[in-house]
Amino acid sequence: MEVEMVVEIPQGSRNKYEMDHETGAIWLDRTLFTATQYPLDYGFFPGTLGEDGDPLDALVWLSQPTFPGCHVWVRPVAVFWMSDEKGPDAKVLCVSSHDPRFANYVDIDDLPEHLLDEVGNFFEVYK
């Protein structure tokens, strides 16, 4: 399955950007105040609605970081079941659909353990 994702925050950033879904403008929400940085490009699936009332959150493993506002075709392979002040907040982990390096990644069992640990640790300390 291939779906469209919009990147809000590139891998390695300590800045948390959010897209205004009405105007398409990208705003700096805050800067992470620790050495923590985003482990993968982070964004959302347009046209979806998560349990928190926002579009479903997504992360994508790419060969190189992209930029805020970039649209990427991705293949979902895993979900991190999180919760925040609004309630359940799923984070869908994806790989790039158009990068042959990720052609054999189709579900969570295909992902390297260190990647899952890194993403899991990020969400433990990120808020």
Characterise this structure.
By secondary structure, this protein is mainly beta. About 10% of the residues lie in helices and about 40% in strands. The chain contains 1 helix and 7 strands; from the N terminus they run E-E-E-E-E-E-E-H. The protein has one helix at about 115-125; strands spanning about 5-10, 15-20, 25-30, 40-45, 55-60, 70-85, 85-95. Strand 2 and strand 3 form a beta hairpin.
Features:
Inorganic Pyrophosphatase; 127 residues; five-stranded mixed β-barrel; globular; mainly beta
Give the CA-CA distance, first to last residue.
31 Å
Biggest sheet, in brief? 5 strands, mixed, barrel
The level-1 CATH class:
Alpha Beta
Helix/strand order, N-terminal first: EEEEEEEH
| CATH architect. name | Alpha-Beta Complex
Q: What fraction of the residues are assigned to beta strands by DSSP?
A: 35-45%
Tally of helical segments: 1
Radius of gyration: 14 Å
Query: Which geometry do the CA atoms define?
Result: globular
Helix content: 10-25%
- Tally of structural domains: 1
Total strands: the figure is 7
Give the low-pLDDT segments: none
Mean pLDDT: 93
Strand order of the largest sheet: 1-4-5-7-6
CATH superfamily: Inorganic pyrophosphatase
